[in-house]
Write a structure and sequence with these properties.
heterodimer; A: 6-stranded mixed sheet
């Protein structure tokens, strides 16, 4: 036993007690302040899950740039590149004057596909041409996610659907 | 000076209730209930965020990893029947995926351990923090003296819902006692440091 007055060092083998829980609570507060999970992340994950399809390939963002559009400082333009195992998707996002955004995209390798963009309120689709180009003239701002599906009726060319992470347009 | 229990009152979590609730959500999610799946996502993502971040990923990669892990869970749900299995699977899969991403995508040094130094510089007195400024500073300093492994383990465990400590500890490779999670080396060391800051580092 511990002699009276000596501070007893807690043993690693004891069950957690209230002091431990208090310390863990303090650690949690520290990291909640220093490195909080983005508050909207669970919502964006739920959005992705609602679109799931087990035949789907998930792309990840591999590059993102804000383009300085020369001499037109009010216009914002941004490019985002997504990579999956089979496909690279590059999109350029430009603001429209009416508050929506225009998206021009390219698929590599170039191929005809059906490209769909899902927003929290809407779903739009557009085909890509044989150079892999596609365009959406007007997409509402907000969370959006792109899904590149196999082209409607091409024989052979099955291909899996590729899903991008949700991003904020 | 030890951090005492003057913060939120520590109430024993009602383990059976939460376990039953989570098991119920899992079985509803398996049956295709999106809302049940969404509740699980909301409840456990903060823990998984810390798992991914403590593996050294930047925010964007951590987000990608969480998206991947949750999608993968859906395909795996039919093999998960209780809360402990769910949390254990999620933590293990998030860690592995985070390590894989770090190895393939980034070639940067391991976890960003400057975070604690930055924290130590923060102004005291953020009112939201429950523990008092002096105690908080002492806690930061003590944690900064622990090994990186201990810092990462404690950071993750601190975000586990309490009834899931044992499952998370097991997923992280920490010993779990027969009656539940034991304090472990890292918390014991932390308490020793708080009791006597001159204690040599772990």
């Amino acid at each position: 036993m511990t002699p009276p007055g000596a501070s007893r060092l807690p043993s690693p083998d004891e069950p957690l007690d209230d002091v431990d829980f208090g310390l863990l609570g303090g650690i949690r507060e520290m990291f909640e302040a220093a490195d909080p999970m983005p508050a909207d992340l669970p919502e964006r994950i739920r959005f992705t899950l609602a679109l799931r399809d087990l035949e789907i390939e998930v792309a990840r963002i591999s590059a993102e740039n804000d383009l300085a559009v020369a001499a037109r400082s009010t216009e914002q333009s941004r490019t985002v590149t997504f990579d999956s195992d089979s496909l690279t998707i590059m999109i350029r996002i430009d603001a429209n004057r009416d508050g929506t955004v225009r998206v021009d995209g390219w698929l590599a390798p170039p191929q005809r596909r059906d490209v769909e963009v899902k927003t929290s309120t809407d779903s739009l689709s557009a085909p890509s041409d044989e150079q892999g180009r596609f365009a959406f003239a007007r997409i509402p701002r907000g969370t959006a996610q792109f899904i590149v599906r196999p082209a409607g009726r091409g024989p052979g060319e099955a291909g899996r659907s590729v899903l991008t992470p949700a991003l904020i347009l | 000076m030890a951090v005492d229990g003057t913060g939120p009152v520590v109430v024993r979590a009602s383990q059976p209730d939460r376990g039953a609730r989570m098991a119920g959500l899992v079985s509803q999610a398996r049956a295709g209930n999106e809302d049940a799946l969404g509740q699980i996502v909301t409840e456990l993502s903060p823990l998984l965020w810390q798992v991914a971040r403590s593996a050294g990923l930047d925010s964007r990669d951590a987000e990608d990893v969480l998206q991947t892990v949750w999608l993968r869970l859906v395909a795996h749900l039919n093999r998960i029947h209780d809360s402990a299995a769910l949390v254990g699977w999620l933590v293990t899969t998030t860690r592995r995926e985070a390590w894989r991403v770090r190895a393939t995508i980034r070639k940067q040094p391991p976890a960003d351990h400057q975070l604690l130094d930055e924290l130590a510089d923060q102004r005291p007195g953020s009112e939201e923090l429950v523990i008092a400024g002096d105690q908080r500073r002492a806690l930061w300093q003590a944690i900064g003296q622990l090994s990186w492994r201990c810092q990462d383990l404690l950071r993750i465990i601190a975000f586990a819902p309490r009834p899931d400590y044992a499952a998370v500890a097991a997923a992280l490779g920490m010993p779990v006692g027969s009656i539940g999670p034991t304090r472990g080396r890292c918390l014991a060391k932390l308490r020793a440091l708080l009791a006597d800051p001159a204690e040599s580092p772990a």
